User: What shape does this take?
Amino acid sequence: MLDITDLRVTIGGRDILGGVDLSLRQGQVHGLAGESGSGKTMTGLAVLGLLPHGARATGSIALEGRDLLGLRPKELNRVRGGEIAMVFQDPATSLHPMLTIGRQLTEHMRHHLGLGRSEARSRAVELLAKVRIPGPEEAFGRYPHQFSGGMRQRIAIAIALACSPKVLIADEPTTALDVTVQAGVLRLLRGLCDDLGLAVLLVTHDLGVMSAVADEVSVMKDGLVVESGPRGQVLRTPSHPYTRSLLDSLPEAHAVPGESGQQSAGDGETA
Amino acid sequence: MTDPDGPSGTATAVPEPPEKAAGTRGRRRALRHPLARFLLRRVLIAVLLAWGITVVTFVLTNLVPGDPATANLGQRALGDPAIVAQWRQDHGLDKPLPQQYLIHLGGMLQGDLGVSQQSHRPVSQDLAETVPATLELAGAAIVVSLILGVAFGVVAALRRDRLPDHVLRVLSLIGISVPTFWLALVAFYVFFYRLQITPGSGRIDPGLQAPPPVTGLATVDSALAGQWDVFASAVGHLLTPALVLALYTIGLLTRFTRSAVLEVLGQDYVRAARAKGLPGRVILFRYVLRSALVPIITVAGLAFGSLLSGTVLVEAIFAWPGVGQYAYKSATTLDLPAVMGVGLVVGGVYLVINLIVDVLYGVIDPRVRLQ
Ligand SMILES: Nc1ncnc2c1ncn2[C@@H]1O[C@H](COP(=O)(O)OP(=O)(O)OP(=O)(O)O)[C@@H](O)[C@H]1O
Ligand SMILES: [Mg+2]
Assistant: This one.
């Protein structure tokens, strides 16, 4: 679905990514782990062409065969939000504080899908219900500050899903949330992935989170993917010493991921 | 700026769970719309402040040393204590100050601001003629500086560290550092005396028939009357003094808008909007400018205060028959009723500007309005 090969990014002569290879498959969650500053966010931003000012990217990022790095701005804008969506790290700052939830949920639907006002509205309410926002009709007209952190993150996920993208990049979607809320958001992601056949890139530095939902796992260090493979293999028999040290630093309970495989998807929980 | 309800105070407001918000809203039925309640509160505060202004101008005016009787009666009359006492009684000056204030307040509520010792006409009549002239000048300067200042600031931010940014940086620095009175003199000398491309002093060319007064604004009145030659002349006369007056504010707003826009451009929600594939102009107007407007409005409100004080000098140099000239004349001749009247007008204008700024905060930012 999405194949990243030999992605290199430099900012002001400094190498941020030194040849990243990743591939996402439909209906699968691909976990991307690694310490702070290893280039996880940069990889996600590169896919959407949202690298910071002055960054240069080479290599290839192919979405169903089309190279995204070569797209013109207009075509890239159609891919953004429409085919590839992103959920950002901090739900407190990734929604505009002065625009209603409804506005932020519908504007790109109307732009990408050409929906009318009322169509977009009913779809938005549906989406809010899908991410389990209580009272979706009323929530539509409210502002971000009237929701809790967990709810805002679900709203951000609803916004990302609005145009039925094929790929969802979730950049540490749970780091800013407390543990109980985290579980709910992760189950939600897993469920959406199974139901809608999304390809998800789940960025996290938390191997516990990883072991709970990911199908495939990649580990990054210093702008390189040092290890990649099915979850069970990477987490139980890591081949790279860095992965092993990451695993060793985990509390006992997480270190041995359950064999059971599939998690129950989308159990309700309140934020 | 010092308003505790301003955006700086609410930016970190604790998020309120929606259930609770719904509960309080249901209880207060009468003024359910949050914006209406917000506006009402602001207007009440403004009325209170207006009353405060009347007290302050009254007290200040009475603190000024000098006896109004001396200023108004002739030498002979002053020699006779009975006449002086009679005059004081006639003008209510024999009563205690608080009572004088009440009489003054009562008169003011009926539009009576006393009689100017200079023009020997009611102060309210003098003000009715001079205030519109100043409103036209200052209003034009405010509109021009808002449009140009914000536009320049946005361009500078979007073209950061490139040629337009550098050029605008120099221009805004000039705008901020050149004194308004000097600029007014130079503009008048160069464009009127030397190049003769701008009309001279006053509001319209002397040969023209002034339009029937409706609003008191020469441009609007002449347009309403369909006198287009007068309209053209009024615009021509307005242009140079308004630009001179606006230059400082343009420079200031350019700088502030630039930094406000740059700050917002770095926000997560702008990147999130880009990730949604929205067109650039939607992101600029809906996402970036809306947030940037909050600090811009704060600065604009303050800048307009200094713009008003600039009108005194600009009016003097361009012989513009406005409040600034009137204030200058009445202050130098100790014409107390006139000074008091001008004080009220200026205080009232500040009040209105502050009210507009406060209301705009609420309109733009739901976190201010929904607390
Ligand atoms: N705007 C920028 N300009 C230059 N370098 C940057 C910029 N943003 C990030 N970097 C550098 O890029 C590298 C990768 O950063 P990135 O944000 O991708 O890390 P990360 O893996 O997401 O870390 P974290 O877990 O802390 O989010 C870091 O070394 C960082 O210093
Ligand atoms: Mg990151």
Observations:
- Residues 179-196 of chain A form the longest helix (18 residues).
- Chain A has a mean pLDDT of 85.
- The radius of gyration of chain A is 18 Å.
